Amino acid sequence: MNWGFPHRGNAPRKPSHANIAALGGAVVLLTPVVAHAESVTRVGTVEAVVVERNTLVKVDDMNFARVGSRTTAGAVVLNPVTNLCTSPNGVVLSGTCQPAQFAGMGRRNFFIRVQYPTSITLTGPGQAMTVDTITLNASPDLTLSAPGSSNGNRRYLIVSLSGIFAFKMGGTLRVNANQAAGVYSGNYTVTAVYN
To answer: In angstroms, rounded to a whole number, what is the distance separating the alpha carbons of residues 82 and 97?
Structure first.
């Protein structure tokens, strides 16, 4: 009996271990390489500023970023129009500067008087520093109505259609010679008087 094989010499042979290994290697080579998935998670922030009529809300703090200490005094100017810090006398700067920002709500074509300090004192681990020559950028929501107004108490016309406005505040940081390293901060008051 030949069980379906016409000739005894044509019966299938048992594969050898070498043939099985070669076949297994070919299957591995043809199998696509599976990449391991990597996951990175970041936390985002969402903000909204809500203002009520005849109020003032602080949106952002003034920040001069990082300033290098040196053997001579220097200054850092924070421009509230460009949001950039520069140094007229070569103080080394690093990081992102940010003007203070405030928002409020009045009525279109009504006036608001903004009162702010003419200087701010910053204290920390070393000698106190000051911010002076404080300037406001009220565009495009407010228009200065009396250009001759004194610094720190200016009258503006609300020109935004909604009556909602924002303004930014910058100034000049006076850095002392050999300023001690550390974090310096100071508080100040801004007042909005609605007319």
So the answer is: 10
Reported as a single tens digit per residue, the pLDDT across 54-68 is: 999 999 999 999 999
Residue 72 CB contacts under 8 Å (≥ 6 apart), including other chains: 89, 177
Structure-model confidence comparison of residues 149 and 48, the more confident one: 48
Q: Averaged over 97-117, what is the pLDDT?
A: 95
Domains in the chain, ordered, with CATH? 56-194 (2.60.40)
Instruction: Give the separation between CA 170 and CA 158, rounded to whole angstroms.
Output: 21
